[in-house]
Design a protein that fits this description.
Layout lengths: L1 H22 L1 E14 L16 H4 L7 E13 L4 E14 L2 H10 L7 E14 L6 E16 L2 E3 L2 E3 L1 E3 L2 E12 L3 E17 L5 E2 L2 E2 H7 L13 E15 L1
Antiparallel strand pairs: 1-2, 1-13, 2-3, 3-4, 4-5, 5-9, 6-7, 8-10, 9-10, 10-13, 11-12
Amino acid sequence: MKHNTIKSLCIAIVMLAMGINANAQFESSVYLNLGLPTAQFGGKADNSATAPLLTKDNIGTTATAGFGLGGRASYLFDVGFGEVAPFANIDFQWNQIKSTYRDAYATADANAKTPSYFNIPIFLGINYRYELTDVFKPFAEFGLGTDFFLISREQVNNSTLRYNVKNSFAWEIGAGCFFGRHVSAGIYYYGLGKHRITYNEKRTEINGLTVEQVNQAGQLIDPTFDCNKTQLRSIGELMLRIGFHF
């Protein structure tokens, strides 16, 4: 009796798995992103002592709205009351600093280099869709992962600042609607974590001296530059994403 029960249970599990696999469908997606910076990322800089340089104390702030691209691989399962789609997602997002700060760089040095910000978040998550009509299919999703935050150099006159940034735990949540099978639009929030920012000591020059030379001398050339301090910066973006699904 016990043997027959176990055998029947195994057969039922196999039949269920075969049924799920029969209804499963692979989906690849491409996204166009518009991101509005939140948290410290979109905040103001207090760089009056080092203007126009942001320095480590202010870098990772003053971001404008940014643009980006995303890619996703999903596997759709019909669960009877909608579709569930586990996914792997990667985005590449670009933000400039605000125009008032860019203008300050140009005024101080015609050859100045203003910093730009690049976020590369990678998420694993779950998307749920419900077919309201043949045309409209609302969805909601969440994902967990990591964000790689990159900062280009800033350069004014004889100071060139380059940064090292640690990647951070990240998450996302979103909701929107599919219009037919191949197009979607949604609002997402990307919580991209708190990133640790330090100077790249070998490639940063402050008033003509590298950070290594400043540290070896045992003093700072300018007290507004704290070469050894790690700066924490909270990064987030409210995203509008238009998706194309194949």
